[in-house]
Specification:
- With about 220 residues, this protein is α+β, with helices and mostly antiparallel strands.
- The chain has two domains: about 35-120, 3-Layer(aba) Sandwich (Glutaredoxin), CATH 3.40.30.10; about 125-215, Glutaredoxin (3-Layer(aba) Sandwich).
- Helices cover about 45% and strands about 20% of the residues.
- Strands 1, 2, 3, 4 and 9 form a five-stranded mixed sheet that branches.
- The longest helix is centred in the N-terminal third of the chain and has 23 residues, at about 10-30.
Length: about 220
């Protein structure tokens, strides 16, 4: 019987590669992503000053949020972008003022209270879970690992067995997307749901891909 002997330099190189791979995964987990919110208005109709101020105040208090204020009266390209968004969502038009982000359109905003309440909704990931569910446990561990990657995202957990309200809420979410909750967890985010959780390399990867699609690496603040 022969033993397997590797050259010392090959062993060192292998260890180095493994270390680089681990470091890369750590950097990926720690990289901070910022979500973009676009605010559309028409200054020829209403300057929407109160709404803009409320939005800026909200963003100031919520780390990881980047605002884009767009006036259709100043740039024709802005109206063209609105038309593209409306077409994507199969809407005949989008009544201004409106906001767009994380695969959500909030149109015809009437008050700053409505604006902030809806912003909180679209910047929230809700995981419907059950105590003792191993897939729910794994999903929680995964979300905890990447929580700091998306500082603007609120992550909350809803226990569907002991909380009847949470169960009804989950059923309503599932019906909204015309799906069946065959397993737990049910994770609601970016105007869509993920049902079940396999492991980080599969389900987790799909969740990260969606969140990364609607965000960009945060840029460091410029020193004043």
């Amino acid at each position: 019987m022969f033993g397997l002997f590797l050259p010392k330099n090959l062993i060192v190189a292998t260890v180095a590669i493994l270390a680089i791979g681990t470091a890369s995964q750590t950097v990926q987990a720690q990289q901070t992503q910022c979500f973009s919110i676009e605010f559309f208005y028409d200054s020829s109709v209403n300057d929407a000053a109160e709404l803009r101020s409320s939005l800026e105040s909200f963003a100031k208090d919520r780390t990881g949020l980047v605002l884009h204020i767009r006036d259709v009266n100043e740039d024709n390209a802005v109206q063209e972008r609105i038309n593209v968004i409306a077409k994507h969502f199969r809407m005949s038009s989008i009544k201004l003022p409106a906001i767009y982000g994380l695969k959500n359109v909030i149109a015809d905003i009437k008050s700053k209270e409505q604006l902030q309440n809806r912003l909180k909704e679209i910047l929230r990931l809700t995981a419907y879970v059950r105590k003792g569910c191993p897939h729910c446990r794994d999903a929680k561990a995964f979300l905890a690992k990447y929580r700091s990657r998306y500082p603007a995202l609120e992550i909350r957990y809803r226990e569907v067995i002991t909380d009847a309200t949470a169960n009804r809420e989950m059923q309503a979410v599932v019906r909204r997307y015309r799906r069946q909750a065959a397993s737990l967890p049910v994770i609601h985010y970016c105007n869509g749901i993920t049902i079940g959780f396999d492991r980080e390399a599969t389900t987790g990867r799909r969740i990260l891909q969606t969140l990364d699609y609607w965000s960009n690496a945060c840029q460091p603040e410029k020193k004043k």
